[in-house]
Specification:
4 helices; 0% strand; binds zinc ion
Length: 114
């Protein structure tokens, strides 16, 4: 991977980190609003409210995981180990990194873990 590639991936990761952090914060804010609304809703819609709350929590958990993965990828860039597979120590295909910039495994290694 060239320095240009590395810079590009760093920008991509930083942009994605900013977007995901904003999304998560907005979602956590709106969750507070939902909790207040629940005092006003009836018994029947309570099931719906609980269900959508559980879905929102699942989505937030995935967001938090993605944010952690991106932070780890940015740290690997700083340490100079970005793009090296954590499974086999070989270089991860640049095309794969462009699709999944935060990945720490090459495709064969990622498949083995599934
Ligand atoms: Zn690998």
């Amino acid at each position: 991977m060239t320095d240009d590639d590395l810079q590009r991936m760093r920008t991509l990761l930083a942009d994605e980190l900013a977007t995901l952090t904003e999304t998560l914060e907005a979602s956590l804010e709106s969750a507070k609003g939902t909790a207040l609304d629940q005092a006003r809703i009836g018994r029947l819609s309570r099931m719906d409210a609980l269900q959508s709350q559980a879905m929102a929590q699942g989505a937030n958990r995935r967001l938090a995981e993605e944010i952690a993965a991106i932070r780890a990828a940015l740290e690997r860039i700083e340490r100079g180990t970005y793009g090296i597979c954590a499974g086999c120590d070989r270089e991860i295909d640049l095309m794969r990194l462009e699709v999944y910039p935060a990945t720490e495994r090459c495709l064969p290694c990622a498949k083995r873990r599934e």
